[in-house]
């Protein structure tokens, strides 16, 4: 086993145990957070190019299935329905499989399929993809890097428990301005909190499909509870909003544009933020405005402090 693989498995194992510990202690918000972040790390490895991975294709399939089980357990913790849920004792059966992934050669214990959240491309690979037809202002955006399998939006999480002298943030997504707002099918927004390297700091949340489309606006009027106290976010963190819609011709959900809010913009009241061309740049290094028109994402922030 290479040093890189050993280090990776140790980190995954520690994260897995942390999540199941939170789960068994009844700290469900923390468990969901840990499960979803680990699931994304596993999915990213499962989709990595063969020559850049420490694992074989069969091992990566098993890793992807473990990620699916983490997502299923996370969904079970958020659901009010108890039947057919993925149980903690089931999830714990996967810990030795993950630990011994390099030698594991048995049939996977659960009938699940890998469900990648997004296609992950090698750096620069998106430059060779066809341009999309519907880019604003004739921009050259690529469709495939931001293509997602069809899934039902609406994974909002409840507000965290309050802590003394700590601040929680609720963001109401009011509406987004787009020149072709009326043509967007099943639009929703994915909200994530990233550090400067683009790593998730909280679970990713999807809004339900928009309430209505009117003129150049898509209306949401939905509250997002940021899943970390503001004081605990790392320096340079940002909150991202990715606007997604379904493309029937291509049969996938695509990111149309994105916006983000940095820490110094967190303050009570209304705020409008600019929209940028895809693909989403979580590191905020190559930003291109979506349009010169006065079209923005309209938000309202509420701060909660003990």
TrEMBL record:
<dbReference type="InterPro" id="IPR035892">
    <property type="entry name" value="C2_domain_sf"/>
</dbReference>
<feature type="region of interest" description="Disordered">
    <location>
        <begin position="128"/>
        <end position="156"/>
    </location>
</feature>
<dbReference type="Pfam" id="PF08910">
    <property type="entry name" value="Aida_N"/>
</dbReference>
<feature type="domain" description="C2 Aida-type">
    <location>
        <begin position="157"/>
        <end position="304"/>
    </location>
</feature>
<dbReference type="GO" id="GO:0016020">
    <property type="term" value="C:membrane"/>
</dbReference>
<dbReference type="GO" id="GO:0048264">
    <property type="term" value="P:determination of ventral identity"/>
</dbReference>
<feature type="compositionally biased region" description="Acidic residues">
    <location>
        <begin position="128"/>
        <end position="138"/>
    </location>
</feature>
<dbReference type="Pfam" id="PF14186">
    <property type="entry name" value="Aida_C2"/>
</dbReference>
<dbReference type="GO" id="GO:0046329">
    <property type="term" value="P:negative regulation of JNK cascade"/>
</dbReference>
<protein>
    <submittedName>
        <fullName>AIDA protein</fullName>
    </submittedName>
</protein>
<dbReference type="InterPro" id="IPR023421">
    <property type="entry name" value="AIDA_N"/>
</dbReference>
<comment type="function">
    <text>Acts as a ventralizing factor during embryogenesis. Inhibits axin-mediated JNK activation by binding axin and disrupting axin homodimerization. This in turn antagonizes a Wnt/beta-catenin-independent dorsalization pathway activated by AXIN/JNK-signaling.</text>
</comment>
<dbReference type="InterPro" id="IPR025939">
    <property type="entry name" value="Aida_C"/>
</dbReference>
<keyword id="KW-0217">Developmental protein</keyword>
<dbReference type="InterPro" id="IPR036818">
    <property type="entry name" value="AIDA_N_sf"/>
</dbReference>
<dbReference type="GO" id="GO:0035091">
    <property type="term" value="F:phosphatidylinositol binding"/>
</dbReference>
<comment type="similarity">
    <text>Belongs to the AIDA family.</text>
</comment>
